[in-house]
Write a structure and sequence with these properties.
This protein is an alpha+beta fold. The protein has six helices and eight strands, in the order H-H-H-H-H-H-E-E-E-E-E-E-E-E. The protein has two domains: 25-105, no CATH class; 109-209, Lipocalin, CATH 2.40.128. Helix content is 36%, strand content 31%. The radius of gyration is 20 Å and the shape is globular.
């Protein structure tokens, strides 16, 4: 049998267009128990859409093999979940990972807070998608020994939150981090409670669009 050049081209295009991804689940025909749980939970479907967009961006801008390998392991972790809470945490972890990639940063809106002596914070916002927003917050603190001596501490936190009237809150254990949108260029971040950050690291501050 002879296959035309057009058919070969279409086959190659279709294969190339099939990156490893758990996103885009067909909820008319869910094939696994985890698929059925995702399809039955709007917040999980939104996370699925976020993961799809961030994965596509990361795969284009970062090392595709690394991104695909991580995605394959993540898919297995989702499929091993037996409840929605487990799936939700798996999605949040993967979204945080993808958002931190070059591709993820390119499709997010990024803000910077600068402190004294080289301290800084970075706020990355993806969304909103379906009423939810992915937040990635990182901060570094330069100790008295200086950056050249390696006296630098860092911390990061990520999560998916609803924003109402430009306000949102991300809670991790006994730490509560508040987000306030002052305008299109500026966010204010505060935190309260017991936040287990590295010595000298603070997420609080005014973040301005980069």
């Amino acid at each position: 049998m002879t296959i035309s050049k057009f058919a070969m081209a279409m086959l190659a295009a279709n294969l190339f267009a099939m990156p490893v991804s758990a996103a885009g689940i067909d909820c008319k025909k869910p094939s696994t128990e985890s698929d059925r749980m995702i399809c039955g939970d709007q917040s999980l479907r939104i996370r699925d859409a976020m993961t799809s967009d961030l994965y596509t961006a990361a795969r284009k801008s970062d090392d595709a093999n690394t991104i695909e390998g991580r995605q394959q392991r993540w898919i297995k972790s989702v499929q091993s979940c037996h409840d929605a809470a487990c799936i939700r945490q798996a999605y949040d972890n993967q979204i945080g990972y993808l958002q931190a990639t070059k591709g993820g940063q390119s499709v997010s809106t990024n803000f910077l807070a600068e402190g004294g002596k080289g301290d800084e914070g970075n706020l990355s916002i993806f969304g909103p998608v379906g009423g939810l927003t992915a937040i990635l917050l990182t901060a570094t603190h330069v100790g008295p020994g200086g950056a050249d001596a390696g006296d630098v501490d860092a911390g990061s936190i990520n999560g998916i939150i609803p924003l109402k009237g430009g306000h949102g809150k991300l809670s991790v254990d006994n730490c509560s981090i508040g987000f306030e949108r002052l305008n299109a260029q500026t966010w204010r971040v505060t935190h309260a409670g017991v936040c287990d950050f590295a010595d000298g690291v603070t997420m609080q501050g005014t973040y301005r669009k980069q």
